[in-house]
Design goal:
It is built from five helices and seven strands; from the N terminus they run ββααββααβββα. With 171 residues, it is α+β, with helices and mostly antiparallel strands. The strands form two sheets. Strands 1-2-4-3 form a four-stranded antiparallel beta sheet, covered by helices on one side. A three-stranded antiparallel beta sheet has the order 5-6-7, with no helix packed on it. A hairpin with a 6-residue loop joins strand 3 (65-69) and strand 4. Mean pLDDT is 88; it is low at 1-5.
Length: 171
């Protein structure tokens, strides 16, 4: 989900017991290549992130989720927590899984950048910028994309340089 309400989904419906959060995805969501973002991309991401062998960085948070499913297999995502939590904490937990383009990642390892170049150089992204250049410990260059549901970024390109003072990198 990984975004503020309105960009990817409306405010979730919350069950009376405070455990189940139901999201309805916008129907105009697209990856940077223009292909649609689907419920399968969210379900695939959860399945992969919840596997211990994939070393997902927030696996401990994912483990607070009892179920992650789509009752209609179209645009509704229903996430149930193991235990009720205060709303803001619960939203942080249910928001821990963002979509991953299943069509690109399916069958590729999550922990081997040599066998899966998508790890360091993604070909399809979700967000206002797409990586155009990346050199470890040197620089990253990102270009604005037209498909971001929040609108095209006003800054056409961002460069991040390693080992720079923040003010120098900003300039």
């Amino acid at each position: 989900l990984a975004a503020e309400p309105g960009v990817f989904y409306a405010d979730p419906q919350v069950s009376p017991d405070g455990r189940t959060y139901t999201f309805t995805l916008r129907d105009d969501l697209k990856w940077s290549d223009g292909s649609p973002i689907t419920i399968d991309d969210f379900l695939y991401a959860y399945t992969q992130a919840s596997k211990e062998e994939n070393n997902y960085v927030q696996l401990d948070v994912v483990q607070d989720i009892a179920s992650f499913k789509s009752p209609d297999n179209k645009s509704t995502l229903e996430i149930t927590l193991k235990d009720p939590k205060p709303r803001d904490l619960a939203l942080g937990i249910v928001d821990v899984i963002g979509p991953i383009p299943k069509k690109v990642w399916d069958g590729k390892p999550w922990t081997d950048a040599t066998a899966n170049p998508e790890i360091l150089n993604p070909s399809v992204v979700l967000g206002p910028y797409k990586q155009t250049e990346y050199k470890i410990a040197e620089r990253g260059v990102f270009a604005a994309v037209d498909t971001y549901p929040g609108g095209k970024a006003k800054i056409p390109q961002v460069q991040i340089l390693a080992s720079q003072q923040p003010s120098v990198a900003y300039e």
